[in-house]
Amino acid sequence: MSERTHSTRILAIVALFFSSYIVGIYSAARASSQLLNSDAAHNASRSLEDKLDLLDKEAASLTETGLARSSSRNPRWFPFYTIGRFSNDICLGNNLLMGTCVISGECTDNNGVAAGSCSTITNQAICCIYQRTCGASTSYNNTYFYNSNYPAPFAGGGRCSIVVTPPDSTICQLRIDFLALSLAPPTGDGLCSTDALTISGGASQVPTICGENSGQHVYVDFNGVGSITISVATSGSYTFNRQWQFQLRMIGCTSATLAPAGCLQYHMGSSGNIASFNYVSAASSALNSIGVQGTRQLASMRYGICIRKATGICSITYSQVSSDAYSFTMTNDVGAVDPTLLATSAVQSQDCTTDYIIIPAPTQGGTNMPSDRFCGLGLVATTSAAKPFVVYVVTDANEEMDISNRGFYLSYSQNSCPVL
Ligand SMILES: *[C@@H]1O[C@H](CO)[C@@H](O)[C@H](O)[C@H]1NC(C)=O
Ligand SMILES: *[C@@H]1O[C@H](CO)[C@@H](O)[C@H](O)[C@H]1NC(C)=O
């Protein structure tokens, strides 16, 4: 037997030992818990299951019950903790959703969906996806929240909510990714009065949004260990195919993906796009209160879009998405302007008091701009070296003088520091 085969065999034996060890512990406990269940001694089985959970979960693994778990035990004293840590990693399911790697019985017990194996040590470890709809509550990381019958649309009527509770105080933020979000559009004055997504209970404000927002996201600060409620209200009297699927991510207080204070959105790419809520290049079909074609832009916004500065980067440049002439139409009458002038300096305005974005310390073509506010019907490429990288968005409560505008859809790119 060669040296190599020999060590491979030893490894295999060790792996086999540990896999049967952990599966054994879990199965034995499950078997006895089933036994106890059948004796109707539910309380006893509950506490056994809790002990079991303590064994095969690490602190970062989240529980739906939100029970405070003892963290006073020192994991290093227990060999199975080491395997538990491995098995409770974040995993990508074979349905391309994010899950948590757990022993399959635990996934079933917690109403998860098994989406493929996630460990080379044991085929008992599966990637468990938590999917929830109206009326649910969760403390699991990467819970997916969707409309009833998703991916089929929902015709509307009523309120659909989920309550998200952080498992402990090491979690500071909730990142909500709108993988799909299509609700009834705002009125021609930019009000979400037919359908509305509201997010409450956090320590930071989230504006009410509606319309088309697939691909957008928001960050909300948890208020200690208090819960955050995500609620979609829809009006059944308005015929529309609503649809949503959100990914709910727990962000640890020391995570590199924690958004800085004041950022409703946080982008981490060295380049990418930012857009106002309900941005679509096509005009709104709704009329506004003065009877002309309304806006897509949502009223009463006040938030920051932050971009994480990459290493070796000194500034950031924002420009309109060039394929879309309407990609900066924030104030004034889109229809009254020669379309060839849209997106040019001829219609960029810095005299902004109603709806505008703020780019701190802006320069255009190397020249400092007199004001950091931008509105009108075009934005010339604008660079800022102010840190952190942020664009503030402000819209007032009255969009009636804004005719047929869409909002903004910008691309950003981070610029390397000059070589000295
Ligand atoms: C479980 O415990 C609760 C109180 O802790 C008690 O009211 C209940 O009767 C118990 N159930 C069983 C099945 O023993
Ligand atoms: C939750 O999952 C995300 C991946 O979607 C990961 O980045 C994050 O660190 C996880 N949070 C915790 C507290 O483990």
UniProtKB/TrEMBL annotation:
InterPro entries to which the protein is assigned, alphabetical: CUB_dom, CUB_metazoa, Sperma_CUB_dom_sf
Keywords assigned by UniProt, alphabetized: Disulfide bond, Membrane, Transmembrane, Transmembrane helix
Residues that span the membrane, as ranges: 12-29
UniProt entry tagged with the keyword Disulfide bond: yes
Domain CUB: 134-251
Xref: PANTHER family: CUB DOMAIN-CONTAINING PROTEIN, INTRAFLAGELLAR TRANSPORT PROTEIN 122 FAMILY PROTEIN-RELATED
Name listed for the protein in its UniProt record: CUB domain-containing protein
Species of provenance: Drosophila virilis
